[in-house]
Amino acid sequence: MIYFDNAATTRATDTTVKIVSEYLSEKFYNPSSLYHEGLEAKRDLDRARAAILGKLRGEGKVVFTGGGTESDNLALFGVKKHKNGRIIIGGAEHAAIYASAMELRQRGYDVVIAPVNGDGSVNEDGFRELLTENTTLVSIMHVNNETGAVNDIGKFASEVKFVAPNAVFHSDGVQAFGKMRLNLRSVPVDLYSMSAHKLGAPKGLGALYIRNKVSVSPIVFGGGQEGGLRSSTENTAAIAAFGAASEERYACLDETNASVGAVRAFILRSVSEISEIKVISPENGSPYILTFASSKVRGEVMQHALEREGILIGTGSACSSNKASGRIAEALGLKGKYRDGIVRLSFFKDNTADEAREFTEKFFKVYKELSVYGS
Prior knowledge:
Blueprint: E1 2-4, H1 14-25, H2 36-56, E2 60-65, H3 68-78, E3 86-90, H4 95-106, E4 110-114, H5 124-130, E5 135-139, H6 153-163, E6 168-172, E7 191-195, E8 206-211, H7 236-251, H8 253-271, E9 277-279, E10 289-294, H9 299-308, E11 311-313, H10 327-331, E12 342-346, H11 353-371
Parallel strand pairs: 1-11, 3-4, 3-5, 5-6, 6-7
Antiparallel strand pairs: 2-8, 7-8, 9-10, 10-12
Helix pairs in contact: 1-7, 2-7, 3-4, 8-11
């Protein structure tokens, strides 16, 4: 089977599977316990925390959460905001940001949405028109999960701080962490969300980077774990695996990006030969995501046809795949039948050139069969 839906989730690596097994069966102790085994578990948590912070190259702390969605929620709901202040989000943000922003709007905040370009990146001029001195919170994703477009969050954050020095800048980095080099020390990014299962670690674990001197209040209350910001007994097994996965990904980042980029480039050249296909992802986007749309074959139809050929692909964010929502398609400016013809391929370290060739062969075969019927 060929798996090209890694933006939805990745297979756990051999390393992380081994770590999780060890912590569930042998090192299962509660890190809040005061005996030796518990203290050792606490040290393991701190080692993983330090490993992730080191890859961010940030001056702050890392708080573990229940996933990327919870990290986004903690950022938007936990940070201090002026009641009469403006909140700006990008027009193609993940549902975790969009839904949180809509809830804040319901609570009386002035929430505005910055327009995006056709590739999913935030339109800089449109963003500037919305930015005011009264802005209190901005959330712009680092890598768009639908298209792979990369936003220059350093540039956006700097512009925000220039116009509204007290505003808080957050970025959803779920599709960026472990896949590109970061240096949060050099940019005024205050909050940064991550997710473990996007880089070969288990599901159900995320993290939020909080820059020094940025105040965040908890949205989950209880025993005071994670410095009081995320109560609940820590998922030590997943946290240790997350730390190890981040070390693995950055140890061979350049090699992986090159091999994944070659897979993407081969498929891009192939599908671009079909006149009815519109490539949505930018050429200089993340090498891990390639999104295009057809005016003749619906994305869901293509997905199921390729599934019968032993190939798994996506049609967009897995978190919204069960919703009849055209929010992202509308934001990208897709017209007519292209709105329903979106296909997203996403890659990880194990994908190969042979898989790319097999995909294109089967894709062309299936596309030829389906396109005669139209969409």
